[in-house]
Design brief:
Blueprint (H helix, E strand, L loop, with lengths): L2 H18 L1 H21 L2 H26 L5 H9 L1 H17 L21 E3 L6 E2 L11 E3 L5 E3 L11 E2 L13 E8 L6 H19 L1 H6 L2 E6 L1 H12 L12 E9 L3 E8 L3 H4 L15 E5 L6 H19 L11 E5 L6 H4 L7 H14 L3 H8 L5 E5 L12 H9 L27
Parallel strand pairs: 6-9, 6-10, 10-11, 11-12
Antiparallel strand pairs: 1-2, 1-5, 3-4, 7-8, 8-9
Amino acid sequence: MSEDQERETVYEEFAGCFIGAGPAVAGIFLMFLLIGWIIENIGVILPVVGIVVGIIIALVALCWLFGKIHNLYHSWPNVFFFFLFLPIFIPFWLVDRWALRSRSIHVRCPKCKLSDERHSLRPIFICPSCGKRHAALIPGPNGLFAQKCACGKLLRTTFLGGRSTYSARCPHCNSPLFSTGSRQFGIQLVGGRGSGKTAFLAAFWTKYKELLSVKYKNMYEKGDFWFDAKPLDQFEKLEKLFQFDIDEPTDDLNSCMLSVVHQFALESIQASFYDVSGEIFEYDQGKPLEPQFGYCEGFLLFLDPTQSPDFSLQTTINFINAFNAVRGKHPSYLSDVPVAIIVPKADLFTDEFRFVKLRDAERRDGICRSFLAKHGFLETLNVIDASFSNVAFFPVISANSQWKPYGVLEAVSWLMSDENSPFNYGDERCVFLGTRYSMYEKA
């Protein structure tokens, strides 16, 4: 490179730095306003001025030293502006993080099950124009509100600016993420093999899809609401299982995460259901369960009355032991995580459940408890009561038979109505609805 070309490169970088520094200058202005407020209200003029001047001198000296050490004559303007505006980048980054946390917006990976609530999980965003991966699309030296991709497209760096509209991947396993801008609500299905978990999920999704289509028809037509099921092939499989009344057990020891992203006009909520083979609950494997057991907002615990009570007791104990280990909960303390106890195959015991009224919680729970105790599950109930304080019982029919699905929507609705649930608005946006009053009510 000739001397003229090198000089031209330096000038271009100077110009680029000054042009890109516009938002940073505004941030500096705000910083000085804050200093002015501190001076006016606290009255420490000389200390504040001294600290500001000292920081500026130190940053200039550090930039000069950095350039000297690395002999980066042509890049020292970038280094200078990086250190000069570092106090500005951090507040913008903190504001972005606050916007996410204040709305309880998290990212959950469908494959490795890691979540930014408990792990380091910064999504890798994909440029919609060229497909380039951006691992640090956050306010920083490359831009406060937008960064320029190699293809020339400006990518927004903040959640409030619309960053969540880009496709993203997990930084740990490279799996596509279903959503990066949604409030989360996760439900884990728990039970031994053959207890009816997958059949329940198939019946629930079929009825829930119908419910959403009817309840939000007007909003959907106006473009104020839509929902997306991911992965689509798994949901289509559930619909076929229900349509043809196929009982197909899950063999995968890694939970399958099925998510329904509810997009309202001003916010998005991702409801995820984790289905896994009951084999992982049948033996105390001596290893922790998958990460979602540590952050799921609710559990569906299946106690199949057609199976041995001892078998259900053992699976329940194994689940609770692993749950305590993952959450770091002492066994002597009760967990307030909502747990819906599912009594599947209620159509085989119609005489005992015929007087159950799904909306009468006290009577419903009492009849289910008496039924389970009568069939040998009293010890299992004691174990559950000694671990969880927020428990409800639901007799359920998942088969596509004369009774139609019964209790599937109500069980999930109860979980969604928890005070910490993003679905619990108490207004027209609340998605859960009780569809049937009793088993003999017309579906």
